[in-house]
Each structure stands twice: as structure tokens, then as C-alpha cells.
Write a structure and sequence with these properties.
With about 180 residues, this protein is α+β, with helices and mostly antiparallel strands. The chain is built from five helices and six strands, in the order H-H-H-E-E-H-E-H-E-E-E. The longest helix is centred in the first third of the chain and has 28 residues. The chain starts with a helix and ends with a strand.
């Protein structure tokens, strides 16, 4: 009697087996879809979907900060310490720009009291420290950095900071971002 009671509890009808099999297939399909979506949109690798469009750090910056950057900016180099799900970290991009439009120049301002340059170096020091913690080599002696003669633009959004500096003597645009 004990054995037949046990068999009744563990014997599944064909309908129950079909439901269980269907549920397993649906769960497996959902899991596969999530993995594929993550790979396409960069969730699993910490990369943005824009990477697949061939975007450069200039495109990312313009999109992230909703600003227009010069079309003729040629990237000399870019250092990124972005990590994590939300790509928090710092990005330092140096560009050669032959000419800035007057409308872009109008958004820039002189750094009369040195506050922009001080903010820039604070973020740059953080970038270098983050790079070292990520085992990225940065030769600080060869970094191209803005001078006190640059004209600046600063934007703060949430806890994130963007600093742009243009050196007209060198035709260089310096972009540094601190993304929290």
C-alpha cells in the first residue's frame, strides 16, 4: 500500500509532462534571447551598442553630453578607464582640430582664475590612478595636456563632468570626462 501511494504522487500524466517540457523549453529560449540581446547591446561586455556603429570617442562624447563637437577633429589618442555596467570611469581624448567654427568658439570661455585647469588636472590624476588600477600603462611624461592659455567649456550632468579645452596655438582640443 505504501508503494502504490508513492507511485501515485510521482507519476505525472502526459499532460503534466507536456506542460513541464514546454516550460523548460520556454525558459531556455528566454535565457538564450537574454544572452543574445546582452551580446548585441553590450550589457555583458560593458560596451555600448554604438561601438557597433564604428563610433569614435568624439561620437560617444557628443551623444552622451548632447553637444556638437567639431567634425574635423582628428583623434591623436584617447584613454578610457570605463568599467562596470554603467561605464563609469574617466575618458581623456586629445584631438587635432584645424579650425573651430565661430558657434563652437562662442560656447568656450577663458579660464581667468585657473579653476578649469585645476578641475582638469583633478580628473586627469583620477584617470591615471584608475588606469593603473586597471593595469593600463600611461606614460605621464608624454601626455599632451592643455595650457593656461586655453579656452574652456564645462558641463555637469547629474554627478558627471565634462571639460573641453581648446589651445589655438597648437590647434588641439582636449576632452576629459568623469562619469560616475
Amino acid at each position: 500500500k505504501e508503494k502504490s501511494s508513492y507511485m501515485r504522487r510521482n507519476n505525472m500524466t502526459n499532460t503534466q509532462k507536456a506542460i513541464k517540457t514546454t516550460a523548460i523549453v520556454i525558459c531556455a529560449a528566454l535565457l538564450a534571447a537574454i544572452i543574445i540581446w546582452g551580446m548585441c547591446w553590450g550589457i555583458t561586455s560593458g560596451k555600448s551598442y554604438f561601438k557597433h556603429k564604428g563610433w569614435t570617442p568624439i561620437n560617444y562624447c557628443a551623444e552622451r553630453w548632447d553637444i556638437s563637437l567639431p567634425d574635423n577633429a582628428n583623434i591623436e589618442y584617447s584613454i578610457s578607464t570605463q568599467r562596470g555596467f554603467h561605464n563609469e570611469g574617466e575618458i581623456y581624448t586629445v584631438c587635432r582640430v584645424e579650425k573651430l567654427s565661430d558657434s563652437f568658439k562662442d560656447t568656450l570661455t577663458a579660464d581667468t582664475d585657473g579653476k578649469y585647469l585645476a578641475s582638469f588636472y583633478t580628473i586627469l590624476e583620477k584617470t591615471i590612478a584608475s588606469a593603473k588600477s586597471l593595469s593600463k600603462e600611461i606614460n605621464v611624461n608624454t601626455l599632451n595636456v592643455p595650457s593656461d592659455k586655453c579656452i574652456w567649456y564645462k558641463k555637469v550632468k547629474d554627478n558627471d563632468t565634462l571639460l573641453l579645452a581648446f589651445d589655438s596655438a597648437k590647434n588641439m582640443l582636449y576632452i576629459i570626462e568623469d562619469i560616475m
